[in-house]
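Quick start: what a row looks like.
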Amino acid sequence: MMRPTRAAPGGARNQGRVSRPTHSRAQPPARRNAVRTFAKKPAKQKNIFEGQRPWVELVDGKPVSGPDLSCVVDGVKFPNPFVIGSGPPGTNYHVMKKAFDEGWGGVIAKTVTLDSSKVINVTPRYARMKSSSNQKEVIGWENIELVSDRPFEKMMQEFKRLKDEYPDRVLIASIMEEYNKDAWEELIGRCEECGVDIFELNFSCPHGMPERRMGAAMGQDCELLEEVCGWVNDAANIPVWAKMTPNITDITSPGKVALDAGLEGLAAINTIQSVMGVNLDTLRPEPCVEGYSTPGGYSSKAVKPIALAKVMSLATMIKEKYDGGKSLSGIGGVETGMDATEFMLLGCDTVQVCTGVMIHGYPLVQNLCAEVQEFMTQHNFESIDDFRGASLPYFTSHTKLVQLQKEAQERKKKKVGLKSDEEWTGDGFTKETESMVSN
């Protein structure tokens, strides 16, 4: 199958951008059931923030009015750039159907493995950090949840059902396995039979069974990562993203390894290893299970600055080493369209939301889309490609910042005004006046 070339960027800001290269992979297995079925008509959409935030109705993920939010990433067309991040919001058919009905551009299912019998979750498995000024506002969220504990066969049936009912919507399979080539190849083949559009490789869960060399334990080992990415790249017939762990000194090192192995893109960041806190009454850590806990993954608003820094590093690496020819999906603390816009300004093609959906619900996507549209209208942007990556050139070294400030101070010293009345002009009168004002 010849994968289509990524849509050419638009707008004057992107004249120097390089479009994604065309990739070739073998034809994926034929779908077992080509008969299209239809999902029950979704309920009428409404603004869950009751007018306090901008809102737009979405039909098949497309806004009924305003700027176009569609994008083509690695040959796959998204009606909008917002994607359900892998986790509880994508854990079964019913919740993924809800996501499509509310208008999400894509859905990443909760991570699947071949043998779910080894996955045993506990309860409680979440802990929240709330704002000190507003106890209703969640700013941090820790989870110690594992990958999907549902039978693999059941998940495959539900993937197929979703693609039969929503053939034009983007379904992404998040997959994770042990260091076993046969297992990875079987996992890929079985998921492709169900018609999924993209793979996301979970190399980043901070508590994803490291004793089995899974999750972040694999993503932090570049030698191991290179080999597994090679297996996946050889076996897959659809685009593949590697989900990066932030729990590493330099996120670009494993990122480059994954892309050099032939993968189409990266996703970042997964959760940050954390301990939410200690209960000062019981002296036990949270979340507490029978008096004990374990470090988990931290997400929500508080991680956004860290996520933006990691994304900036990856986007810069993609621009410099791959001429912009690889994709990037941004993750971390997104709850508003303004948050998402920051990720796109730093080079992200799509933006994932997981914790935000757990807090606000699936209709959140309608507010996200409307808020991005407001930004685009304000700046006269017609498409996401008009501003994607526009803020990347404004990052530099601290040494360069010192130099720039010194040059600015030198220019300011030269502002001496007019030397005599002969120098006044009619056209520049106000500026000439300003040049001699001291405050």
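That is the whole record. Residues 4 and 75 are 5 Å apart (CA to CA). The radius of gyration is 24 Å.
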